[in-house]
Each structure stands twice: as structure tokens, then as C-alpha cells.
Amino acid sequence: MPIEKFITLTSTCVPLPIENVDTDQITPARFLKATTREGFGSKLFYDWRYDPAGNPKPDFVLNNPTYSGKVLVAGKNFGSGSSREHAAWSITDYGFRAVVSSFFADIFKSNALNNGLLPVQVSEKFLARIFDVVESNASTELEINLQDQVITILETGEKEGFEIGAYKKNCLLNGFDDIDYLLSKKSEIEAWEKANA
Amino acid sequence: MTPKTIIDKIWDQHVVEAIDKDTSVFYIDRHFIHEVTSPQAFTGLNKRGKKVARPHKTVATADHNVPTINQHLTIQEELSRVQVNTLAKNCAEHGIELYGLNHPYNGIVHVIGPELGITQPGMTIVCGDSHTSTHGAFGAIAFGIGTSEVEMVLASQCLILSKPKRMRINIEGTLQQGVKSKDIVLYIISQISASGATGYFVEFAGSAIRSLSMEARMTICNMSIEMGARGGLIAPDETTFDYIKGREMAPKGHEWDKALAYWKSLPSDPGAEFDKELHFKAEDIEPMITYGTNPGMGLGISGSIPVLDHIDESSRKSFLKSLEYMGFNPGEPMLGKTVDYVFIGSCTNGRIEDLRAFAGFVKGKKKADNVTAWIVPGSKQVEAQAEKEGLRQILEEAGFELRQPGCSACLAMNEDKIPTGKYAVSTSNRNFEGRQGPGARTMLASPITAAAAAITGKITDPRTLL
Ligand code: SF4
After folding, report:
1. Within 13 A of B248's CA, how many CA atoms are on the CB side?
2. Domains and CATH numbers, chain B
3. What is the pLDDT of residue A1?
4. What is the residue with the minimal CA distance to atom 2 of ligand 1?
5. Fewer CB within 10 Å, N or C, chain A?
């Protein structure tokens, strides 16, 4: 199934200046009982977002109408912990297309990319700048240009480059998915098996 | 020939085709699946009209969701039951071996792979579960994957991967009495942080590691993901071969000799270069306990929670948020803190040696009245063995009950949830907010540190009770 193409994204963002946001916070385990991929947006950051009675907690950023947009900006070491892809599904289903942080956990990064969600790793300094600028002006837009691998704070013009592997970049720009690629490699895989039997 | 690390040897062997300089099609020897992270992968496969490419290379178990009492009854909770039944249906349709609930081989996926002899040196092993790193204890490249990747392996027996960097962590020397392999790994994580090995695959080496049993080695590799590593491994040696020999699915006869020759070629060559190398002394390690909400927030049990001055300025907000969740203050000692729950189990410390250590410690003592304890074997075979060795009786005499196998309170997807605000000493691997139930407060420790807490009802140095 093709993933949604990602070329350039210009959007306001939602700041979450917390470090070590693990996948148990992104999607708590008790919501992993579904057998489909849909509908996880309502579970995103559930225990930070709602009190035990299910009422929105007004001090959590997703409940603050000042902030919205398709980019989530979070503190370092985002997505650590469990391999649950439900974390990436929650974030995309909620409406985000990119997550910006100064550091991502490995499995989360691959899960994100497999769902057309772009992890943008920036320096600590640049991340701190985004938090500062957004704090003073919530309507600040970020521009993420995948082709050039550059993220820009539009209000101030500050920019920084980011890394992404050539293969995954190509997949995102074109909406390709890994399974189609792997299925096309049937004979190479069989040859490997024969050689290593 | 340039000397190679064990990581390079196994990795390079499994590259089917290089796509570009850092990405390749990578072959997977063994694939484990369970009920929680596989249903969407089968749905994806079915939508494409594809069958599982190599059904005999995938093994399934039901573990994350299952109850730990009355397993002979149908699962009461509807969503869990649907997930477990969906797994059975998918396995039947695609010809995959399933060790479901009540099967004598059922158990936590990372406990049953090794005990059945499925996990072997030199293999590449994946599962939709981050603690797949456990299998690395046998000298395998084993790591957790997401559901899209589960679908890729089902469809093609391959993944598209970039090679991680290589790190070697050496632990030399002799452990103090009362210090377990869980303490070694909690100590390393406390030193390098919960993201200290992100981007790396780690080899654990050194005399302290060599002296460990296979089960103790599994505890260390299990938690390599908690330092951010993609996975961790330990070079196979006689301890490894002795453990595997004779197990249900281990190679036999001529196959065994052939396998053994290959396994012996795996250890890192002298002079092989790692991208990063770290050294620790076994003598420096005390029984460990965590005080915060990630596994890097740990300290020697006689120590105190850091004061704010010792925390990086940029991390203070997260540090305080974490302490607030735990109901602790900077600078407080851990000894003497009240404990409400004790959980022994999980793929970190739910094997027979862990139950033996716990039972040996509580034998002739009594559980503290203020403590609720859940003792959950990692598998049916562990449960049967505990029965055979008389551990159940020792536990019962001390006021404990042995439950039935599953992930249980490690992630609290079943009924085994620590209530809001309560303190648990847990032998599992994650102390994240809400990991053991909404609002639960987790302190990670070894089985004997947990035993000391269960007996005294508070955080206690196990060495004082040995
Ligand atoms: S015991 Fe815990 S860590 Fe291990 S597989 Fe189960 S949920 Fe995952």
C-alpha cells in the first residue's frame, strides 16, 4: 500500500518540551488491543491528555487551542521504549506529518518512516530556538523541505539541515512502500537462501 | 583479512542485496509473533492477496494479553479474547506453528524461543516487540520491529535496513555477593543513560559477563533496548553450547557438529574495531534500584536521589516531572521507602533461575502484610519446573502464590495492573509512567532486591538479609 507522499510541509506546530517521551506515553498499552490500524488519534498521549474520569486536562498542550498544526516538536530522545507502531499510528491519525526532536529512538524512527511520518532530527540549539520562538508566537510556521533536507523557522529565517537515508527519502518523496520493493526481490532472496542453506 | 566484530560477521552474512551505501535487503532467520503487534500485519498481507513466504520460519505465542489465573477458562475480557483468537485464525490460515494459551510450550515469546532451542548463535531474529534483544545472549542479531516490518518479514522473510554502529561494553572483575545480572544492566544504563546506546548494536564482553549463566546473560541483553541500543549480544561459548544441546529444536547429530563449527567462528576477532568501547568494573556495582520514570534513573540501593544541582539544566524540567510522578524528592534516600506491590516475572526476570533466587531468599521468611505480590513464571515450562523443584510450596509457605505464565504486570494489558499511586518493586524492564497501570509507580530491581522488599514491606538492601 503506497504511503502518503511527503515533499514540503509548511505548518504551525505543537510544542512538547519534554525529554524521553516514551511510546507508553504516546499510546498507553491498554489501547493496543485493537486489531486494526485506524482510530488511534483519539488515544494519543491519553494519560497526559485526559484525567482518570476522561475529562481533558487543560494544562496539556493538545488541549490548548493556542497550539495546532501538522508538526509535533518534542524534547530529546523521543519515542524510546516499546516497538509498538501504534505510537506512530496515533501521531499520524491525530494529523501530524512530522515530528521534530534533537534525538529519536531507533525503532520509533523506522516505524514513523514506514507510515509517512517524517522524523526531523535537529541540534539541541535549534530545537531550543523553535521552542523559544513558538512560545512567543504560537502562529510561527515551520517549513520542512524534504528534497533539500532543510527545516526553517519562517518567522526568523533560521534554518538547519537534517539527515535521512537516500532510500527512505526516495520512498517518502514518491510514496513508495518497502513491501512492494521486497516482493520484487523474490529471486535474489531465493538465491541467498540457496547459497546459505 | 581485517579482523571483524561478531556483529559484522552475522550482519554481513545476512545481506541479500545492497540497495545503496547504507541500506540493504537483509535476511531474517527466525521470526516470532504474538497477538498484539501482528493482527494489522496479517490484514495488510491479506489485502495484498499474499501468503506468508516462509511459514516454518515464524513461531507464534499468546503472551501480552493473557490472564495469569484460570487460563483453562476462556479469556474474560472481550478485546483480549478477540486478539488472541485473531492470532489463532491467522496462524491456521497461513500454516504458522502456534504455542497458544494452555499449550505446554506457551509463554512469553522471549522466554520460549531460548528454552525450546529455537534461538541459536549466528541467527538473525526479529519480533514485533522491543525486548527481542533478549535472544542476543546466544550470539544472535536480534531486535524489535514495528508492525509494518512484521508484515515485510511475513511477506518476504526480509527487511530493508541500515547497519547500526557497533559498541562494545566490557565488564571485568567479580560481582559482589547479592549483585545479580539485573544490577549489572541497570548500572550500565544509569551510567550511560536511557539513550546512551541509541544507533548502536552492543556486544557485552569481559570476565564478569563470561562468568554468567545463559539466563543471566538474557537479562542483560533483554535490557540493551533500555539504553537505546538496537540490540545487544554476547559471543557464544561453552556455556551457550551446553545450554542449547539437547533442547527440542536444537540441531542434532551431524547437524549439531556443523552448527557448532559455525558458532565457534562467530566471536569478535582479536583487534576487531568497534565504533565505541566502554569499560566498567564489576566490583563497583551494588544492588540497583530505579527512582524515576525511565530505566536510566537508577542508583545503588544505598544511594540517594540526585539533587537538582547534579542534573543538567536542560533536563531539570523532565527530572522534576518524573519525581513528581513518583512522589519523591531530590536528595532523598531510597532505603526504607514503602512498597505496596512486588512483581516477579517478565522476559527480563521470569525464568527458572529468577524464581529459584526469589524462592531461596524468602524460604523460611514471611511476606510483609502490606505487600501484594504477583509471581508470574515466564512460560509453561518454567511453571512446570518450579512445581517439580518444590518452589511452589516454598513460595506458598512464605505467603506467596505462583500464577500462570504471561507478560502480566510488565505492561499491564491484562488484569494485573498496579493501582494508581501505589509503589511497586518490579523485576521487569520499564518504569515508564503508567507502564504497570495508569498512575502506577514502578521501581525496577533484581529478583532478590524485590524479595527483600516483599519480606520487609519497604526498600531494603538484600545483602542485609542474605
Ligand atoms: S514481558 Fe514485558 S517486555 Fe517482555 S515481551 Fe512481555 S510485555 Fe514485552
Report:
1. 11
2. 6-164 (3.30.499.10), 165-236+268-284 (3.40.1060.10), 288-464 (3.30.499.10)
3. 62
4. B410
5. C
